[in-house]
Design brief:
The chain is α+β, with helices and mostly antiparallel strands and 125 residues long. The protein is 19% helix and 35% strand. The protein has two helices and nine strands; from the N terminus they run αβββββββαββ.
């Protein structure tokens, strides 16, 4: 089983959201430039965000499964969806569940005084 590369995973996530009419939020950089709020890794200091933010980690969580032919590793990426505008994250979950088969239920992190609503969706590309 060949897994998607990180750039392919990013593109697949972006495509799933676009095809389901889920608009990404906006990053505003210190230079004044604006880009879609979809980032691999953590955005640098000074970047502000509004709307829906999607964060993909640079390194996956890896499960190693022993088999008769030897160990097989399977990478899983915990995609973080953050609602900076208070909108529901359920449509994000539904879009990604349609694009990536066999997803486990997401981990929902309720908003606090410091952090907005968030959802972790573990994807095995």
């Amino acid at each position: 089983m060949k897994q998607l590369t990180l750039p392919q995973l990013r593109e697949a996530v972006e495509t799933a959201l676009r095809e389901n009419d889920i608009p990404l939020g906006t990053y505003r950089w210190s230079t004044g430039q604006r880009t879609p709020a979809l980032y691999v890794g953590e955005p640098p200091e000074g970047v502000t965000v509004s709307g829906l933010e999607i964060l993909i980690p640079e390194t996956p969580e890896t499960d190693v499964l022993p088999t008769f032919a030897g160990a097989v590793s399977i990478d899983r990426f915990p995609i973080r969806a953050v609602s900076h505008d208070g909108k529901s994250l359920s449509p994000v979950w539904m879009a990604l569940a349609g694009a990536f088969k066999g997803l486990e239920a997401p981990q929902v992190l309720q908003a606090t005084d410091r952090y907005p609503d968030q959802m972790l969706i573990r994807i095995t590309p």
